[in-house]
Amino acid sequence: MSIIENLKAYEILDSRGVPTLLTEIILDTGIKGCASVPSGASTGIHEALELRDKDKKRYNGKGVLTNIDIINSSILDAIQGLDVRDQKNIDSILLKLDGTKNKSKLGSNTLLSVSLAIAKTASIIDDVELYQYLGGINTNFLPIPLVNVINGGAHAYNNLDIQEYMLAPLGAKTFNEAIRWCSEIFFNLKELLKSNNYSTSVGDEGGFAPNFKNNYEPLEFLIKAIKKSKLNPEKDVKISLDVASSEFYKQNKYLLSASNKSLVSDKMVDFLTDIEKKYPIFSIEDGCAEDDWKGWINLNSKLSHHVYIVGDDLFVTNKNRLEKGIKINAANAILVKPNQIGTLTETLDTISLAKENNIETIISHRSGETEDNFIADLSVGTNSKMIKTGSVTRSERCSKYNRLLVIERNNNNLTYAGHLLNV
Ligand code: PGA
Ligand code: ZN
After folding, report:
1. Does ligand 1 lie within 6 Å of residue 312's CB atom?
2. Which ligand 1 atom sits nearest the alpha carbon of residue 364?
């Protein structure tokens, strides 16, 4: 009753209007499950590679019809007749079929759409919620949402170098309250921006994206918006940053155009430690560039005792890169994006390695998303204490928050992780 009979893949659109994949698993009983995959804009150079048609006559070369052919032929041949609950075996077959280190033959998008759809279908067969299928009976938390309310960098056409300014609602008692706070702050921020004649149109992840005077000004706005919402920026809601600094690291210098500065690694770390001194910062993601390991060690040694130093482009959800980072003390948290690595099994392996070494895991969306909310269940199923999935507007972002609201409402055994990290 859980045998894979057929696969069906579709070319659909992501939140930026770019094609992506939706893959459906069809079992011998006719039961179906499906998953779609996201796509990044500020991708790290060490990420697994997406496969795209490169046919300039369709979707500017970004079509995924080649991927659909692969799913319908070689992948179907390899996994037809297998038990859908045999995730590890199926993922290892996918990896063997690809056979490359960076998934350049079949594409991480191709592999992931199948891998995630397998897990979803298996949870339907087992008649359990996806997060329970992934985590068994040992699921304990609802994650702190890191809610991106100001967009810059590669996600907006404005002058901010820092890509994401996020709210970290640590002091809430429940996930539900955390989301309400963030929504209220979002609208107070909108009022404040409007009254200063700043644009309130939004960037790729649903946060506001006006031009600012410099990289500090958004922090001032955020503090005001938090206070206007009758919340405390030290205790209730702190601020998280994704600097995404690999994007502006050129010839060993960090080029901060909003401040008209070009900083060597040590000075970049000083710039970030100075921000941390002045503002209630909860976490800093990609404060240094993807191969500036020395900068990471420096930043981590300065701030890791009270700030999460998060590796995104640095680790790219890759076990080997995380292993190196652990050895040399480069960070104390990892951003986990399944499409950076390509299969669910590899994603879970990286999460396990992080946990064994007291590295916090933050499950994350991509800037180009779909309505698929797999990562919400992944965050609960892996006891991750944080999730990063954009603003509280735009349905492809809200679908993850909405799923977590439903999970919280239906499971009294899960507690909101805010109090665990509110130190
Ligand atoms: P991306 O951005 O999906 O465009 O890579 C998200 C991030 O950098 O965290
Ligand atoms: Zn990032």
Report:
1. yes
2. 9
Looking at residue 259, what is its pLDDT? 81
Please state, in angstroms and rounded to a whole number, the distance separating the CA atoms of residues 401 and 329.
32
Question: Is the predicted pLDDT of residue 258 greater than 90, yes or no?
Answer: no
Do 149 and 290 belong together in one domain?
yes
State whether residue 11 is helix, strand or coil: strand
Residue 184, CB-side half-sphere exposure with 13 Å CA sphere: 14
Which residues are bridge partners to 242 per DSSP? 164, 285
Output the domain CATH number for residue 33: 3.30.390.10
Strand partners, 142: 416
pLDDT at 96 over 80: yes
Q: What is the pLDDT of residues 135-178, one digit of tens each?
A: 999 999 999 999 999 999 988 889 999 999 999 999 999 999 99
Q: 180 with 50, same domain?
A: no
242 CB less than 6 Å from ligand 1?
Answer: yes
Q: What is the Cα gyration radius of the chain? A: 21
Tokens of 287: 């404060």
**Do 83 and 160 fall into the same domain?**
no
* From 45, 315, 317, 366, mutation site for ligand 1 pocket: most ligand atoms within 8 A of C-beta: 366
* One domain, residues 252 and 189: yes
Instruction: For residue 366, give the ligand 1 atom closest to its CA.
Output: 3
Q: Which of 20, 240, 241, 337 has most ligand 1 atoms within 8 Å of its beta carbon, as the pocket-test mutant?
A: 337
* pLDDT at position 289 over 70: yes
pLDDT at 423: 62
| 263 lies in the same domain as 399 | yes
Instruction: Clarify whether residues 167 and 110 are in a common domain.
Output: no
Residues with a beta carbon under 5 angstroms from ion ligand 2: 242, 285, 312
CA 242 to ligand 2 center in whole angstroms: 5
Domain that holds residue 44: 4-127
Q: Is the pLDDT score of 1 beyond 90?
A: no
98 lines ligand 1 (CB under 6 A): no
What's the 30 CA to ligand 2 centre distance in angstroms?
39
Cα distance between residue 114 and residue 325, in whole Å: 30
Q: Return the pLDDT at 35.
A: 98
The CA angle 285-288-294, to the nearest 5 degrees, is: 130
Tell if the pTM clears 0.85, that is, is over it.
Answer: yes
Catalytic residues: 205, 337
CA of 241 relative to ligand 2 center, distance in Å = 9
- CA gap 212, 159 in Å, rounded: 7
pLDDT of 395 strictly over 70: yes
Is any ligand 1 atom within 6 A of the Cβ of residue 47? no
- As for how many domains the chain has, the answer is 2
